[in-house]
Amino acid sequence: MASYCLTVTRLRLALGTGARRFHVSAAFSAKAKVAMSRFEPSSTINYEKMHENINIVRRRLSRPLTLSEKIVYGHLDDPAGQEIDRGRTYLRLRPDRVAMQDATAQMAMLQFISSGLPRVAVPSTIHCDHLIEAQIGGPEDLQRAKEVNEEVYNFLATAAAKYGVGFWKPGSGIIHQIILENYAYPGVMLIGTDSHTPNGGGLGSICIGVGGADAVDVMAGIPWELKCPNVIGVKLTGSLSGWTSPKDVILKVAGILTVKGGTGAIVEYHGPGVDSISCTGMATICNMGAEIGATTSIFPYNHRMKTYMEKTGRGEISAVADHFKDDLVPDNGCEYDQVIEINLSELKPHINGPFTPDLCHPVSEIGATAKKNGWPLEVKVGLIGSCTNSSYEDMGRAASLAKQALDKGLKCKAQFTVTPGSEQIRATIERDGYSKILSDVGGIVLANACGPCIGQWDRKDVKKGEKNTIVTSYNRNFTARNDANPATHAFVTSPEIVTAMAIAGTLDFNPETDYLTAANGEKFKLEAPTGDELPSRDFDPGQDTYQYPPAEGSSVMVNVSPTSNRLQLLEPFDTWQGKDLEGMRILIKVKGKCTTDHISAAGPWLKFRGHLDNISNNMLIGAVNIDNDAVNKVKNLLTGKFGGVPDVARHYKANGVNWVVVGDENYGEGSSREHAALEPRHLGGRAIIVKSFARIHETNLKKQGLLPLTFDDAKDYDKIRPDDKISITGLPSLVPGKPLTAVIEHSDGSQESITLNHTFNETQLEWFRAGSALNRMKELQ
């Protein structure tokens, strides 16, 4: 097979405009490498190496491979010797690059600094998108964020420069949109310290959300471990049209699989319907795959991806991808562990919620359902944008509806906000008139950042505790997530439906059948939204917001003040003492859903993400205590008094008392934030015992030296009382696959034993014995 080598001969940065153009020459070579500057030295695309690995694995397995398997196995550290068994074995992988958002990058870089390594081993970037609070509007909010977060931004910029990491400044956009525009490409394996990293699957990439400690492994050049994923196939037939959008595909899938149905699996979309979806639409679907617990999601390489890459200055890469296309699509006859089929021609607009992203309703039925359940019908705020739905196509389709309303003399009855996904999107929709239309209909254009989607919203229109409804084009709608108000009923849907409901002002408005009243009293229906997939002209890159890592960064100073309340250097966690853990207290027995938002809230707490002791003051303050149905109110069994969860944990730690948390199903679903694991470890926790875990959180707990354990019999959850003591026995002889025993000592003196399971492999057990993965890394240096 002939192979291509594309070498970057020149990278021009047009100062003042930020326009980036790559000039690449193609030539035949023995290796199919695309050596790209891509804002960092030594970033490479090596399709031939992946091709060789795929062929090794295919010969070993003697069967057709799914697309997911091709890319994952194509990145094996040892394709010839790696044991491969879906859902059972752990794979040792070599990802191509790392991306970190600013809230998680703080802890990731603090851990990397603690490792003592001089420079990252793979191309890595930091993206400033989480720390910008929505208050007034884009420019004002961005300027305020730069002032309030100056210390953190300076730390990230200097740490990036010192260790060879690219730095996207505040205002550049949301990490996932930046990755799609610049770093994702068919066949790449990228890990990111954000749960919605799978967004890159819209470009045929394997992009996986992880905790910061996993990112440190990859940046250190250590093979990264992932449990060999199962593969769920979603066969798409028919084609999208009318009011139905790509978002409706994942809303429907979420309703089918629920928030934990994708756990341990990659969701692979295939079938003839794929070609009716734009590249950015595919990214939307993959992005929200995080809400079903999937490891990641992916689409096969096709002409929609090729067109998008050409439009974003990466046509040379797509030319090489064309040459290796057989590696970027599933083999004929490949087998999936589960198959779901969706006819896009029959799919109707959907809206999911409230309080969970898998409560799925057709838009045509949500009004009746809301009335039945007592959900507020008035839509207080409609919010479009976010990493899930902020593409040029999304904004264009929303603007087409806003234009129809304006032409009839109407504006939004609800408040309406617009979040561009990147500076490039902001500049382009402003140039092409979409921003003006959305503003004229009543919209406020926010900063290129996460904003209300992650709780960075200084909301003023309702009081905390006031029951109300908002509709968003976001991906997640857990209780109090967007505005810290547990009474807010948040629904997720497409930007088109959000815009229509914001105009109508009510949740029971079905734009396919219902009429609006024009300013002159005329009744009219909104026509189905339209919008160009990509701009007819080139994208406008907007302002230059990128900081290149210097070739040599050893002289760069990274300062962390010992008196800072935003940043804190890390101290190593204590090592396991080699014996069973006895007489541990139950800090809290959690009732029902417990996401990472419940364990470590975002919003105003984001400012402490670089300071472990301060951020630990939010540990489990959102979790419901089964003992009293209250949040942040647990009994201190040493004093007999009630206190906040972090306060009681600190008291136990100060008195040498180890403790555990007991939880329900899918514990730790949601964000990839490793603070939800760091905080319990920091405050003296030893084990988290639950019915089942979300994937990322379970790994994060292992990385920090905690024991994530599951009931062998889920009914044993009911045997544990909040005032019990628990001893975990069998630790000195713990090996992979061998259960542990928990001895429960009740306050009446009676005892009973239950079996607890774990998923540790031998490498992960070394983390536990050393006290953390970072401790183990240091031992091996």
From TrEMBL:
Keywords: 4Fe-4S, Iron, Iron-sulfur, Lyase, Metal-binding, Mitochondrion, Transit peptide, Tricarboxylic acid cycle. Pathway: Carbohydrate metabolism; tricarboxylic acid cycle; isocitrate from oxaloacetate: step 2/2. Residues 584-713 form the Aconitase A/isopropylmalate dehydratase small subunit swivel domain. The keyword Ubl conjugation does not apply. GO terms for molecular function: 4 iron, 4 sulfur cluster binding; aconitate hydratase activity; metal ion binding. Its main location: mitochondrion. Signal peptide: none annotated. The keyword Iron applies. Its EC number is 4.2.1.3. One of its GO terms (cellular component) is mitochondrion. Its cofactor is [4Fe-4S] cluster. It catalyses: citrate = D-threo-isocitrate. Binds 1 [4Fe-4S] cluster per subunit. It is an enzyme of class 4 (lyase). It is found in: Mitochondrion. Residues 69-505 form the Aconitase/3-isopropylmalate dehydratase large subunit alpha/beta/alpha domain. GO terms for biological process: tricarboxylic acid cycle. Catalyzes the isomerization of citrate to isocitrate via cis-aconitate. Belongs to the aconitase/IPM isomerase family. PANTHER family: ACONITATE HYDRATASE B (PTHR43160), ACONITATE HYDRATASE, MITOCHONDRIAL (PTHR43160:SF3). This is Aconitate hydratase, mitochondrial.
